[in-house]
């Protein structure tokens, strides 16, 4: 864009000066062709555009070209070519992908506001608000105003504009492709810098928007600049196979014969891999064969024909079942649909096959560009899957726009954006309500919660993955079914451990924001841990917050009327005491007092070994008033389907968080579930146990470690 502009006679850009568009138009028309026909320079673009859109109005393209040519007159690129060749090339790229007229109009004008004296208001007056918005979306921010933050803030501006109109990013991708094609005139260090931004940001965006035709060429151009040795090795490998018989052509001939005999109208093509794809296959498989350098592409008319082709191939050829993927029934997050399979070819090697309709092929190549007018009413407005219903606002883009609003710092935004886009593979997770969630590969239940609920995910207390209770840190796989369990308590929030399980920027930023707004008490504020308690006069409590935080007090004095201040107290995990349990304590290393239930077997062992008990008591004997309590419950039940799901729902309905769960194998039609739960209030425990006992099939619920059931 502007980085390649050289003015050889045009005055420097002066903000605010108004240009007479009619004067510019008359100047551009001189020598541009006879009246009534398009200038020769844009005639080829018009023909390509009409091939995709026979009824397109070419007058607006004519006027846009006239303004662009006259505005850029006198400017040259680094290569010495007239600058108008750049917007023409960008427009031709988009026309070949099937972009509609408004997009082509904006692409012709995309550098006028940035590099000439034309203003956005003039563009809007002459071509309408849609074109004005698109041109504004791809116009870079000035370094003089933003300094080092100009690049990240420009991309933030483009992403926000893309959130309102995906055609903004289509123009930017085509602009970058032409600049990458002509990057050889730049200094090597500048080539590398531009190539890295293209690799880290624009290629992933092209993938997410489904514009494979641009993505693959950008990948090869970046590959040649950043990894010249590997690029040369891959190129030589492809050239070495060029003079050999192609096994894929022989397999394609057999496939055509099979489909013709079956009466299926289909086109069968050999589709060559681009260099980066060949390089990846070589790393994955080592030695390459001729079949590895391409794939078969089968194009049919209807969706049903895709499955008919698949059936014939798997019947008449030896299939590699592990290679089968159905992206028609479950499309990718970027609109991509195809059947993938592999069969044994003429040489016995696996020949990969892509099966799709002609429409699917157009979308696979051009993504959102192939949608024509992206603001036409969707065919299925009530469909639950927001990732595909509105192609103008994909789900991944909505999530990206959400977290970018929470990152005003340009460096943090730039780093988070690259991290987000570095995930080159996504998984699709099915929600309990029938919808889907698209997530980067390696995402956990925590990421899914924030993707589905936003800040409402702060109240998530557990998850079931494929019907089984799972920790929130569980990594989700493609095709998993996820049911998130939410707490009705609006005061609940994430723990710091969630940050370790969050992979997506949206989840990390939301967790960090909540933790910053709800800082944990500083243990150091209460002073160093005290020595094991000994008789003596009571000291003043260091601060009232300590008493509110520790549910157990260490007793001092002969009658037990005082409290020992400054002593760290921990509730034992072996017996998980809660009020009003009878408790006793033992001083352990560091001065901490561990509190056990009186019947706990550990108490007997400690006393037998000569350890001196420490008298403790509950500050709130009825368990009300605060403090988080962990309790382990054991449910005895008759084995039946969906028992685990029903028990988990009963627990979640009481607003209790599940810390861990274990299910023993059934024995004589009976099964035991053991849950470790976190209670915000110990007074919840009796009602929780009663709720669990009401689950059909459960005949007893007890505290782990002793046989004490809930009162009826």
TrEMBL record:
<feature type="compositionally biased region" description="Low complexity">
    <location>
        <begin position="518"/>
        <end position="528"/>
    </location>
</feature>
<dbReference type="InterPro" id="IPR043519">
    <property type="entry name" value="NT_sf"/>
</dbReference>
<dbReference type="InterPro" id="IPR012676">
    <property type="entry name" value="TGS-like"/>
</dbReference>
<dbReference type="Pfam" id="PF13328">
    <property type="entry name" value="HD_4"/>
</dbReference>
<dbReference type="InterPro" id="IPR002912">
    <property type="entry name" value="ACT_dom"/>
</dbReference>
<feature type="domain" description="ACT">
    <location>
        <begin position="632"/>
        <end position="706"/>
    </location>
</feature>
<dbReference type="Pfam" id="PF02824">
    <property type="entry name" value="TGS"/>
</dbReference>
<comment type="similarity">
    <text>Belongs to the RelA/SpoT family.</text>
</comment>
<feature type="compositionally biased region" description="Pro residues">
    <location>
        <begin position="529"/>
        <end position="540"/>
    </location>
</feature>
<dbReference type="InterPro" id="IPR004095">
    <property type="entry name" value="TGS"/>
</dbReference>
<feature type="domain" description="HD">
    <location>
        <begin position="83"/>
        <end position="180"/>
    </location>
</feature>
<dbReference type="InterPro" id="IPR012675">
    <property type="entry name" value="Beta-grasp_dom_sf"/>
</dbReference>
<dbReference type="InterPro" id="IPR006674">
    <property type="entry name" value="HD_domain"/>
</dbReference>
<feature type="region of interest" description="Disordered">
    <location>
        <begin position="518"/>
        <end position="548"/>
    </location>
</feature>
<dbReference type="Pfam" id="PF04607">
    <property type="entry name" value="RelA_SpoT"/>
</dbReference>
<dbReference type="Pfam" id="PF13291">
    <property type="entry name" value="ACT_4"/>
</dbReference>
<dbReference type="InterPro" id="IPR003607">
    <property type="entry name" value="HD/PDEase_dom"/>
</dbReference>
<dbReference type="InterPro" id="IPR045865">
    <property type="entry name" value="ACT-like_dom_sf"/>
</dbReference>
<dbReference type="InterPro" id="IPR007685">
    <property type="entry name" value="RelA_SpoT"/>
</dbReference>
<protein>
    <submittedName>
        <fullName>HD domain-containing protein</fullName>
    </submittedName>
</protein>
């Amino acid at each position: 864009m502007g980085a390649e502009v050289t003015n050889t006679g045009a005055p420097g850009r002066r903000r605010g000066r108004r240009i007479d568009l009619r004067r510019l138009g008359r100047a551009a028309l001189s020598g541009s062709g006879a009246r009534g026909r398009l200038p020769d320079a844009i005639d080829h673009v018009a023909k390509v555009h009409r091939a995709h859109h026979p009824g397109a109005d070419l007058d607006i393209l004519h006027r846009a070209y006239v303004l662009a040519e006259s505005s850029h007159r006198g400017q040259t690129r680094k290569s010495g070519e007239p600058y108008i060749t750049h917007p023409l090339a960008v427009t031709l790229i988009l026309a070949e992908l099937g972009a509609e007229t408004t997009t082509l109009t904006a692409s012709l004008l995309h550098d006028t506001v940035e590099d000439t004296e034309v203003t956005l208001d003039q563009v809007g007056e002459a071509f309408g608000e849609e074109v004005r918005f698109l041109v504004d979306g791809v116009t870079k921010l000035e370094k003089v105003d933003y300094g080092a933050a100009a690049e990240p803030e420009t991309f933030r501006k483009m992403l926000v504009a893309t959130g309102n109109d995906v055609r903004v990013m289509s123009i930017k991708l085509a602009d970058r492709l032409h600049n990458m094609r002509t990057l050889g005139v730049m200094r090597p260090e500048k080539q590398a810098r531009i190539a890295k931004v293209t690799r880290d940001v624009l290629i992933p965006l092209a993938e997410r928007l489904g514009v494979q035709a641009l993505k693959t060429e950008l990948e090869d151009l970046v590959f040649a600049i950043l990894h010249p040795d590997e690029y040369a090795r891959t190129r030589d490998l492809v050239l070495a196979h060029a003079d050999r018989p192609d096994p894929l052509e022989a397999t394609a001939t057999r496939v055509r014969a099979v489909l013709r005999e079956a009466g299926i109208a289909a086109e069968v093509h050999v589709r060559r891999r681009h260099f980066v794809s060949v390089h990846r296959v070589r790393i994955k498989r080592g030695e390459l064969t001729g079949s590895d350098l391409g794939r078969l592409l089968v194009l049919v008319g209807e969706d049903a024909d895709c499955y008919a082709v698949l059936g014939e191939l798997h019947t008449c050829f030896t299939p590699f079942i592990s290679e089968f993927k159905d992206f028609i029934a479950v499309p990718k997050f970027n609109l991509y649909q195809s059947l993938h399979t592999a069969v044994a070819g003429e040489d016995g090697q696996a020949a990969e096959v892509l099966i799709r309709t002609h429409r699917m092929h157009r979308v696979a190549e051009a993504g959102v560009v192939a949608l024509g007018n992206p603001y036409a009413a969707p065919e299925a407005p009530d469909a639950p899957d927001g990732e595909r219903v509105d192609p103008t606002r994909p789900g991944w883009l909505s999530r990206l726009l959400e977290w970018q609003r929470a990152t005003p710092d340009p460096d943090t935004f730039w780093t988070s954006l690259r991290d987000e886009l570095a995930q080159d593979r996504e998984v699709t997770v099915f929600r309990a309500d029938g919808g889907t969630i698209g997530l980067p590969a390696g995402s956990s239940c925590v990421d899914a919660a924030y993707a589905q609920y936003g800040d409402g995910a702060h109240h998530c207390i557990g998850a079931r993955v494929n019907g089984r209770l799972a920790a929130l840190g569980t990594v989700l796989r493609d095709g998993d079914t996820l049911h998130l369990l939410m707490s009705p308590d609006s005061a609940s929030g994430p723990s710091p451990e969630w940050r370790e399980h969050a992979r997506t920027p949206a989840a990390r930023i939301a967790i960090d924001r909540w933790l910053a707004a709800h800082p944990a008490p500083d243990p150091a504020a209460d002073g160093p841990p005290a020595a094991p308690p000994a008789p003596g006069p009571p000291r003043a409590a260091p601060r009232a917050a300590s008493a509110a935080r520790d549910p157990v007090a260490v007793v001092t004095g002969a009658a037990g009327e005082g409290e020992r201040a400054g002593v760290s107290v921990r509730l034992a995990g072996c017996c998980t005491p809660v009020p009003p349990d009878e408790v006793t304590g033992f001083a352990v290393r560091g001065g901490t007092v561990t509190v056990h239930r009186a019947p706990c077997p550990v108490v007997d062992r400690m006393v037998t070994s000569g350890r001196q008990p420490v008298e403790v008591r509950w500050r709130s004997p009825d368990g009300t008033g605060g403090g988080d309590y962990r309790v382990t419950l054991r449910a005895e039940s008759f084995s039946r389907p969906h028992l685990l799901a029903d028990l988990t729902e009963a627990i979640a309905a009481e607003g209790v968080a599940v810390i861990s769960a274990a299910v023993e194998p059934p024995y004589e039609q009976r099964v035991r579930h053991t849950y470790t739960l976190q209670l915000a209030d110990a007074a919840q425990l009796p009602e929780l146990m009663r709720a669990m006992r009401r689950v059909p099939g459960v005949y007893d619920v007890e505290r782990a470690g002793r046989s004490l059931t809930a009162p009826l």
